[in-house]
Amino acid sequence: MATDPIERAADLLGASSRLLVFTGAGISTESGIPDFRGPDGLWNTVDPEDFTFERYLESAAARRRSWIRWSTSPLRQARPNQGHLATTELARTGRLAGCVTQNIDGLHRAAGLADELLVEVHGNVWTVRCLVCPAEWPTETVFDRVEAGEADPHCPRCGGLIKLTVISFGQAMPAAEMHRGYAMAQAADAVLAVGTTLSVWPAADIPVAAARRGVPFVIVNLGPTDCDGIADLKLETPAGPTMSRLVDLLD
User: Fold this and answer.
1) Averaged over 205-232, what is the pLDDT?
2) 49: Cβ–Cβ under 8 A, 6 or more apart, which residues?
3) What is the domain extent for residue 70?
């Protein structure tokens, strides 16, 4: 058996032809996006109540702060890193059952991962949706309105409240995306969780659902996770370089 941890991961996942990749904030920190709950994360710089769905619905001031916060976020300048590109390369080899991400940065999509292989269970910052009618459009068009001085943008079609597709605290999870994620977990013959503590539910139940079926389960994360005890292998290594080398070994 290999002694190098990444080689051991490749041994465990080598027979897989339907690998489920589940990613969290740790895969995007190398793109300059702070971990939401880390020392420099957004959670430590704002009122947590501003992130609740209820506050967003009831307060024009909270909505204004939200639009300004997102329009000045480092997410707008972030670019895919080795980890995102390696996931797309895994899809190119035909081994990827799908990628379920908790991240809202859109970097898997920016790295070229096809829509049919990607589930963004917490939404993303690049699409705005009306909460009243079915209208949706690119976020940049709303950022333009905010930067032009519009304090509380509403839907140009029906006048309803609009919101990023990012899921706020207290907002229902997107049923269709959760269903797609569980379908990928059911089809998977191995699971690779990258850059996540696997502590945010119900999203974290998706890789666990696959692991319960007895398929190989590998975690790559700097720091403990809630699922270390059920993983076949835990790697305490940086997400990007680990993913890049692992995919090279699997190719």
Assistant:
1) 97
2) 55
3) 39-77+126-165
Same domain? 113 vs 144 = no
Q: Given 84, 108, 122, 154, which residue is catalytic?
A: 122
Q: Note the pLDDT tens digit of each residue in 136-181.
A: 999 999 999 999 999 999 999 999 999 999 999 999 999 999 999 9
Is the N-terminal amide bond of 202 cis, ω within 30° of 0? yes
User: If residue 144 lies in a helix (H) or strand (E), which one and from where to where?
Assistant: helix 139-147
- Asked whether the predicted pLDDT for residue 2 surpasses 70, the reply is no
Q: How far apart are CA 161 and CA 209, in angstroms?
A: 36
Given 115, 142, 165, the domain boundary residue is: 165
Provide the CATH number for the domain around residue 51.
Answer: 3.30.1600.10
Looking at the DSSP bridge assignments, the partners of residue 100 are 22, 119
Active site residue 154: no
Q: Domain ends where: 108, 134, 165?
A: 165
Same structural domain for residues 103 and 194? yes
Please tell me the predicted confidence (pLDDT) of residue 166: 96
Q: Tell me the DSSP string of 203-245.
A: TTHHHHHHHTTT--EEEE-SS--TTGGG-SEEE-S-HHHHHHH
Strands (E) across the chain are located at 19-23, 96-101, 118-120, 127-130, 136-138, 162-164, 190-194, 217-220, 233-235
**40 pLDDT exceeds 80?**
no
% of the chain beyond a pLDDT of 70: 94
Q: List residues bridging with 20 in a β-sheet.
A: 98, 191
Residues 2 and 93 in one domain: yes
